[in-house]
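INTERNAL AUDIT FORM
Audit reference: QA-55
Scope: verify that the stored structure record matches its stored sequence.
Auditor: D.O.
Record contents follow.
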Amino acid sequence: MFGKWTRKSSLDQLKGRGRVKLQARVVSQNVVESPLTGLCAAALEWRFFVRSVRHSTGQATYPLHAVRELYLPVGSRRLGEELVLESGGKLIQVLLRDADLRFPHARDGGRLVNRDLSPDFSYLIDNAAPRRQVPLVYHELALSEGDRVTLIGTVEPLPKERSGPYRSSYETRRAEAERDFQTRPDFAVRADLGPLVIEDHKGEAA
């Protein structure tokens, strides 16, 4: 089992499979479109809450008659299956199914759901008891091309062999084979071998 002290901060430090904590950049294209806002990104996640207002009865922490606004989670949804990151000139393939996406600088509150949700989101309405009689709000969290992130996980190198040109024009096929080689990931993240975390840096001071 890889301990925290064995994490590498650069892919060049690896001689095979290993645990890393890397600064990386999203290089996947923004091909995922939000059904709620129309925003396009490389990956999207929505976190839904019901907003509840409570009035204090004069506890020590809150003065008498103070109003507290609470946000109670009722579910989440993610769109986007794969992400490609770049770190130190190397490409890393990340399958998002088991990834823990963290957005530490996301603002509080959220947007009010003011439109009908698609059937894929219908279970959220059931969770937001009693049947939309309290406001349903959401955070829309995006990972977009060019975003800076921290990747924590176990990676392993992928075989990367050039395929020879065949059929069609030799020069055309050679150019296609070279382009495929340059865009093929160098590493893949193995979420089955340890926690996989991607932390977004949007909102941080430069």
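Auditor finding: record pair retrieved intact. DSSP finds two helices and 13 strands in the chain.
Action required: none
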